[in-house]
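Sample A.
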Amino acid sequence: MSAILKMKVAHVLNKIEFSGAETMLYQASKVFDANGIQTTLVASEPGEGRFEQSMRDAGYSIDNVGGEGKLDFFKRFYRYFKANKFDVVHIHTEKLYFWKVMLLRLTGHKNIVRTFHNCWTFDGMLRNTRIAQRRMAKMLGAKHHAIGDAVSANERKMFRNECYQINNWIMTDAGLIENKDAIRAKKRTELGISADDFVIISVGGCSKVKNHGFILDLVEVLSKQGRKVTYLHVGTGVDEEAEKARSKDLGLGAKVVFTGNRNDVPELLVSSDVYMMPSLFEGLSIALLEAMYYNGLVVVNDAPGLNNMIDNGRTGFMINIENKQGYIDLLVKLIEGKENVSAIRSAAQNFIGEKFSMEKNAAELIKYYKLNTKFN
């Protein structure tokens, strides 16, 4: 009996970290395997990422072509793909994207997919360069894919780049929502959070774009009002120490729980009262999708990548971060139970289930891979 021919796909990432693309790949590992996809993750930055072991546990092979400087990286990248042939190479990085396409074509790779994950806002000469590079990459055969409405619109407007759209996805587990009371009690006990505290949660890397300091400021105001509020801060990043220092300077103490990266994010979302995302911009955030499904009550900034996701007052709340008092007023209403949050949670969860199903959207991506290959 002949062996089943598998499609070999390489995903080119930066480091293998706890971010959106890696999370989707991790969750869909069994879907890819069941559909005959043999997946390799190729890190293009030196050093081991914090999500690598989890990815190996999920069945992925991982190689690293990171180098010291551009020239060293180009050599390593070329040699790797000259020695290792794939049916599809899927690039997820903006950094050096065009040059990666050039090198892939020189190594004989024709089926190249580039995913745009963010609403990039380059201007001036850099924007013109990226417009030209996107056009030339397409001329070399690269297929461009966007992860959602906002990213598609941004690529079209900013870079005159038409993309095929397949929405991001998340793995959903209705059982966690059904058992939320027991999970909530368990997780709060583990984290030292009182059962009657109002818990604000954020999930994501620590950076200026994520704007976690804004939440710290809100917690300070609410605490001075005598509100029993805790900020559950999930994630790490370049600004983590600065955020911890700011929390200390504000005198928040145990009112902020810094958890670092976690593998139980859905359970933490279920255990919290509201999810906040005051980011300056997003692409199509996996963290937001998970929050809308597992928590159901989200408050986001009126910013690109967020304002297209929320039907204000129906599937969540959207307030510009310039209106700080608006955030305070809303949070006070939520704490005092003056909003019909059950209807909002239900609408948000239904929205996610309909548009961001892992089974549906991962199958669409596999179909997209098969275009112009022997597997079509």
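Sample B, a different protein:
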Amino acid sequence: MAKRQSIQLATMIVISAAFVTVPHFLFYYIVFVWKSSSLLFVDLFFGVVGISVGFLAARALFPPLGPLDELDEAIANGEFVPYFQPIINLGSSEIAGFEMLARWIKPDGSMVSPGIFIPLAENFSRIDAIIFALLHQAGLSLGKELRANPHLKLTFNVTPDQFLDPKFLPRLLDVLKIVDLSPTCLVAEITERQPINDLDLACEVIAHYKKKGIRIAIDDAGTGHNGLSSIQKLDVSTIKLDKIFIDGIVDNERARQMVEMLANLAHQYQMSVVAEGIETPEQALAAQAIGIKEGQGFYFARPLPAKDLLSLLDEQKKPLTQNNTPTTSPRLTTKKRVDNMRIAS
């Protein structure tokens, strides 16, 4: 972006200078021939007109970037970085894995909301490039930890269209090979933002992923286009319950019953369950009481850059001191460690 602005400014200056110099020289010739003395007015007139023409010409040659152009430039410049939200084992309070989330950080440090760029990237077929770039960065920054701790899982979102694209899995495996990551550490979360138009084909594709060692999860299960049919039909490893269900799990009996029903249904199909959007210790305890074994949300940690996640994983390996020993309080160990480290996220 800065390079483009510099070129645009240089172009404006050159065009302005050219416009001013050539007519200015001719006018001065006429003035000297006719012995006029109105040279100051001539200077001002041609200066203003020259700058105006240069500006308009530069704008015509280098029009402002549109949203898609900005997105393409950001991808090319590596402005997308992965952040990671820990997934917590509600029984042991240990980190079971982390969900990779895209963050667009501009050169000036400002961030673009995922709610703006994710739909744009999905609608204009840029989402693959972003995901593969993020996975490459994740492999470089977290690969050592993932290789040393096979129980950890790295999850990422895919749309149904991406998932069913026959070119997606080979490209995904190529990225994993480059960064020396085992497919067994990955969980692909199929989002509910789009319908799965062909459930039979989806079953076949899931079988291919599982054959390579990649697990499949249904994200925001029960809230999007596919409803409960995807849980019943698809042979996935995990369902993730949306925050909309977890919000009322403590004080809304119908919400609690819905969560319990979905969790029991998943368990009957030998699927694990992750409760998303946990924001209070009471929600964490209620989810655990229902039989949900994993959770994530702001109560434990917000999405973190890789360096902060690695610090949290290192901190988790250390025994807690007497002052930090958790009691029977519902505040879980991981949350306490995050608080102690004062990670700003």
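Observation for Sample B: The first helix runs from residue 2 to 34.
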